[in-house]
Amino acid sequence: MQQAQNELGAFLRANRSRTEPADVGLPAGGGSRRVKGLRREEVAVLAGVSADYYARLEQGRERNPSPQVIDAVGRAMRLTPDARTHLFRLANLHPALTSAADRDVVHPSLLHLLDAFPAAAAYVLSPAFDILAKNAVAAALLAPFDGTSNMVRVLFYHPRAREVFVEWPTVARATVHALRLHAGRFPDDPGINELVSELSQASADFRELWQDNAVENMARAFKVFVLPETGRIELTYQTFDVHDAPGQQLLVGVPQPGSPSATAVESLVAPATLGVTAT
């Protein structure tokens, strides 16, 4: 419980510092403000609680906040729906999901579905962003990273990551924010816990993004790949939760029809036989 409350306090402080007074209808205060973002007292007023109560909440000394208080605090800081859901979980007010024991096994029907996207990059990720299966287009796009099956490790370790993902800062930030959301949903997942511990020590870039304490689901994303054989490929991704395997996600990236990216995708898979690769 103490660890959860410490995480709750860190999350509240991070979001309080990101909330500008003008965003919530308060005067900016000019140079007289000594803290970035909102003061604790201002959040307390906006949420309708005492300043002492809110301070205890941030410090981890208030261990049983009510749903009404957590909802009011989230509204006070104008949290996004994903961030508000994460806030409730950190306060132990939403039951944390338990990742399925077979979370690394992709159902045969889902494997078959991947092959139904011949002109799109489709792959399945575990809660810790391990690539569990991919179709021919995804395999071709990710070929530079053969031997590394975890997308977070690819982004922060692989020497070609910033070459292939030319908009690396955007992709890395979105991935870490989604990973933190998964960590709140699946606190028992050893893959997530090991990954966060490892990268927090090994990568300063990861550590900085993780300490940002931001969360966001990767429902939609725009990614740009640059490969030597095709050049620039632009894909718009949609992410789908796999409901019978909690934590697994299906990502499907498609190019704009008739675009150079669509032509490039066709050239990637034309020499190969279409099929699904389970990792």
Automatic annotation (TrEMBL):
Lineage: superkingdom: Bacteria
Sequence ranges assigned to domain HTH cro/C1-type in this UniProt record: 33-84
Stretches for region Disordered: 1-33
Pfam families: HTH_31, MLTR_LBD
InterPro entries: Cro/C1-type_HTH, Lambda_DNA-bd_dom_sf, MLTR_LBD
SUPFAM superfamilies to which the protein is assigned, alphabetical: lambda repressor-like DNA-binding domains
SMART domains with a match to the protein in the record: HTH_XRE
PANTHER family from the UniProt entry: BLL4672 PROTEIN, BLL4672 PROTEIN-RELATED
Annotated protein name in UniProt: Helix-turn-helix transcriptional regulator
Organism: Streptomyces kunmingensis
